[in-house]
Amino acid sequence: MRERLTHSYGPEDAEPEQDWVQEEDESDLGPRVLWGRVFVLGAVVLLAVVLGRASAGGGASQGQVDRLQSDLAEAQQTIAQLESQIDAQAAAEDPAGTTEPGPASTPGTGGGDAGPGGKTYTVQAGDTLRGIAERFYADVDLDDFLARANGITDVSQLSVGQELTIPPEP
Hints:
Blueprint: H1 2-6, H2 26-55, H3 62-93, E1 110-113, E2 119-122, H4 129-137, H5 143-149, E3 163-166
Antiparallel strand pairs: 1-2, 2-3
Helix pairs in contact: 4-5
């Protein structure tokens, strides 16, 4: 064993470094890498097309669009007819056009002219700003708008016989 420790290895005893490394032909490596990249790119494009088709909406056919357009035209005609009937009924009930339509409209309770686009309303027993806003604007939330237009800071200030200005809806 002692001989083994004292023996020195020289360059002639060394194993060649390249014996265990497998040499590859560089000309053969290029086409394999190129075709691999082409295959991966093709797979990605195919996947994108499949996912795009799966997530896309179906859309509407021309027949469906035509049917919906005809339904819309019929609905607009019906609305126009109903509006003309309402106008004719209002004109028949009030030929002078001085009162506002509504459940509590009575002669002398409103409809006077209060300037450009505005009307006047005389407060009746049981009236509230919310009720008046609902009657004239069909929106109870416009009671604050009515209060500001008439300088009312406290709803308890509303009294029977008080004249309110009803401005056009904002």
